[in-house]
Amino acid sequence: DQQVKQNSPSLSVQEGRISILNCDYTNSMFDYFLWYKKYPAEGPTFLISISSIKDKNEDGRFTVFLNKSAKHLSLHIVPSQPGDSAVYFCAARDNSGGSNYKLTFGKGTLLTVNP
Amino acid sequence: NAGVMQNPRHLVRRRGQEARLRCSPMKGHSHVYWYRQLPEEGLKFMVYLQKENIIDESGMPKERFSAEFPKEGPSILRIQQVVRGDSAAYFCASSYRVANTGELFFGEGSRLTVL
Fold this sequence. Notes:
The structure holds two protein chains of two kinds. In chain A, 0% of the residues lie in helices and 56% in strands. Chain A is mainly beta. In chain A, the strands form two sheets. In chain A, strands 2, 4, 5, 9, 10 and 11 form a six-stranded mixed β-sheet that branches. Chain B is mainly beta. In chain B, strands 2, 4, 5, 6, 9, 10 and 11 form a seven-stranded mixed β-sheet that branches. Chain B has a four-stranded antiparallel β-sheet with strand order 1-3-8-7, with no helix packed on it.
């Protein structure tokens, strides 16, 4: 049972345009959401996060939006740059069982930004 | 730059052999987490350790897999009698305290191939 779903395996955008990466979840007990970025042959690196009590968090070119009623979040990158080309993982934390350190990841979306 | 160090980066084993993966956390970090990424999948939590203690091994397969984090030295993930289905990327992450906001620092991963 996949609790975090990234339905688009890949996304291609032009440099300077907006990239929108989507993520859906099924577990209503998730209270914290994160985006990780991963280059080939490297480990994931933390990008941005959002608490379930908020609906938006912004950090420079990166903004994450959370729609709790739809159980949906999205990552916006604007303007997109070729260096943003990577796999982006959506992850979520369920704090209800006390395991607040355990993340559930989606399968990832490969973003390609074309010059 | 003392990031999370994992070795070996690549490991090839034949079915039935043992695989040992090592993880040295970031300096000052005493919490270690192991995640596994199967092909075409997201990262899945395996185990959470503190120095000399296994805190949560709920994601570890019940047989053949074990993990330790001794007082001195790196954390070790050990897989006995490997099978082809064990082929995956194994990522280690560390944190200074319990990563209750999920902002883990990941290593570059160890890629295990079972022939």
